[in-house]
Specification:
With 114 residues, this protein is mainly alpha-helical. It is built from seven helices and no strands. 71% of the residues lie in helices and 0% in strands.
Length: 114
């Protein structure tokens, strides 16, 4: 079981995911992930299965690299004067997960032909 938690921790670091974001992939609370990582509790059989599925989903995420960060920053600068407040909130709602943020940013850029 420790190997499973170590793999979870590794994937979270690799994909730059917080406990809150990883919890969305697993289907649990961020507090549960925190406790598993700290060793203060152990996941039940149901959660071990959910962790395995969540890890597989997280592995499919693109890794964050500096090129993507600069690209997103430049793209946001270009579209920020065009987007509505609702679109800005929609975009920033995903800021905790860089991959989703970047994908939403590209959708807005396409919408405004930027």
């Amino acid at each position: 079981m420790r190997n499973l938690i170590q793999e979870l921790e590794f994937v979270m670091k690799e994909k730059d995911l917080s406990s809150e974001n990883a919890a969305r992939y697993i289907g649990c609370s961020f507090k549960q992930i925190y406790n598993w990582l700290q060793g203060t509790s152990k996941p039940s059989l149901i959660y071990r299965k959910a962790i395995r599925r969540g890890i597989e989903r997280m592995k499919k995420l693109a890794s964050v690299n500096m090129k993507n960060i600069f690209e997103a920053r430049d793209l946001y600068r270009k579209i920020k004067k065009n987007i509505t407040l609702e679109e800005k909130n929609w975009l920033l709602d995903s800021a905790g997960n860089y991959y989703i943020y970047h994908e939403r940013l590209k959708k807005l850029a396409a919408k405004y032909k930027i």
